[in-house]
Every structure is written in structure tokens, then in C-alpha cells.
Amino acid sequence: MKITFITGNKHKVLEAKGIFKEFGIQVEQVDIEYPELQGTLEEVAKYGAKYAAKLLRKPVIVEDAGLFIRALKWFPGPYSAYVQETIGNNGILKLMENIDDRYAEFRSVVGYCAPDTEPETFLGVVKGEIGFKEKGNKGFAFDPIFYPEGKNKTFGELTREEKNKISHRSKSFRKFAKWYKREVIL
């Protein structure tokens, strides 16, 4: 069985392939642009999946994720990609200077839609903390500044296999894969 993943992010595709392999699901990557709403991760994922399913005339998934930092009133949240491009990890670390509350969450939402149906969403969350400096060169984006709960390494220091066991994306992908096998694949 196969699912079409709408993304241009090769890191996300590698994570998806590693997780979906456990469920016997193959991943086909299609990189098409779709209008990204300003809204919650769920709204973005629903809209993107519905748009792509209608355009391609087949079932698809999209994934949207963000870093949510409590002390910054859950910023950058759904604007994480933009914030990463503009101020990057150093900008976040600068905003966190002199802040004791380092609690943060990575959240991921997978949106699934088939043509002429309403989208489904699947949320994955991993709790953790923002570090004081970048550590590690694995992963991407905010990974080198995020320590997942219970680990003394950042996501940027974990191998893909280690990260896939605990990440927000692995949680949303696994929720989707279980549902997909149960509800869609007969």
C-alpha cells in the first residue's frame, strides 16, 4: 500500500519512510505548492490536504509542524518555518535570554484527504525544553536547540532512528498509519 506525501522537505520524507515502513506503507513524495493559510496547524493541514487531493485526484497527506514555547506565549507556533528562515535558532536563543521557563513543545499535524471527502487530522506532541545553545548537527530547523523530555540530548544530537521513536512527527505519522490501515485499507 502507498500514500502520497505532499512536501518538498526531504527530511520529513525520510522520517515518514522510516515510520511507515513499520506499517507496510510506501511513501510517494510529490512536491507541489499549495496556499498555506494563516491559522492553527490543524487548519493548515486540513486545507493543504484537501487542496492537494482535489488537484491530484488521489488520497494524500500533508504535515505541518511547529515549535511552541510557553515563555514566549507559544511563539513561534504555526509560524515556525517563517521564524526559522528569518531569525533561526540564534534568534530564538536570543529571545530566550534571561528566561528561566524553558518549557516547549514540538507539535505535528498530519492532514489526510481523499478527493471529494473531508480531511482528517492526526496530532503528535513531544514535550521538552529549549537549550541555551545549539548542540548537534543531525535533524533540521530547531532540532539543535530542543531537548525532548527525558533525554539529555537535543533532537539535533539524536540519530534519525532515535528521533523517530519519540518525535512529534513520529507520533502524528503513527496515529495516521494506524487509522489508515484500519479505516481506509480493507
From TrEMBL:
What Gene3D superfamilies does the annotation carry?
3.90.950.10
Give an example GO biological process. nucleotide metabolic process
Assembly description: Homodimer.
The record's GO molecular-function terms, alphabetically, read: dITP diphosphatase activity; ITP diphosphatase activity; metal ion binding; nucleotide binding; ribonucleoside triphosphate phosphatase activity; XTP diphosphatase activity
Give the species this sequence originates from: Methanothermobacter tenebrarum
Per its UniProt entry, which superkingdom is the organism in? Archaea
Protein name per Swiss-Prot or TrEMBL: dITP/XTP pyrophosphatase
Q: Which cofactor does it need?
A: Mg(2+)
Q: Give a short account of what the protein does.
A: Pyrophosphatase that catalyzes the hydrolysis of nucleoside triphosphates to their monophosphate derivatives, with a high preference for the non-canonical purine nucleotides XTP (xanthosine triphosphate), dITP (deoxyinosine triphosphate) and ITP. Seems to function as a house-cleaning enzyme that removes non-canonical purine nucleotides from the nucleotide pool, thus preventing their incorporation into DNA/RNA and avoiding chromosomal lesions.
Q: Which family does it belong to?
A: Belongs to the HAM1 NTPase family.
SUPFAM superfamilies membership: ITPase-like
Active site annotation, chain numbering:
D64
Keyword Zinc attributed: no
State a single Pfam family of this protein: Ham1p_like
Give the binding site residues for substrate. T7, G8, N9, K10, H11, K12, A65, F140, A141, F142, D143, K163, H168, R169
Residues binding Mg(2+): E36, D64
- How does the cofactor bind to this protein, according to its record? Binds 1 Mg(2+) ion per subunit.
